[in-house]
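Section 3.1: Structural characterization of target chains.
Under the original work plan, the team committed to producing a structural model for every single-chain target entering the pipeline before any wet-lab resources were allocated. The record below documents one such target. The sequence was received from the expression subgroup and is listed exactly as submitted; it comprises 151 residues.
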Amino acid sequence: MNTTKNYISIFLADDDDDDCFLFRKALSELPFITNLTIVGDGEKLITRLMKKDCVVPDVVFLDLNMPRKNGNECLVEIRRNLTLVSLPIIILSTSFEIDEVKMLYNNGALYYMRKPYGFFDLQRIVHEALNLIKNINQIKNRFLLQAGATY
């Protein structure tokens, strides 16, 4: 996170309007000042990030299952770009297939976040993820973020 500004710049790539609404609402109720940019598919995310005048966000929340270009394809493409190689990417998904999770980790995702079923669980894990992002240089001791988990 850029320490010279007083907000967290977030890109959310998700094709589900309801999920985007809930994510925005969860952010609005957290104790962070954020600047949220939402794109509806992976192709739009990559196009936006690759623009020469793009200000790289502090974190990307990336839905795994999207049209045109899925989350893993975006992740691989972002990691191949030298400007974006260290961009924190948090994968969002309703599913949990262990082989897929391992592949995403190996492809460079910072965290894997299971989309919870309840709003307050979503708010809690987004809060946790943003706290981790704020302290990225101090801690990276787990990969899976999910509601109700004890560590």
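The two ends are 25 Å apart (CA to CA).
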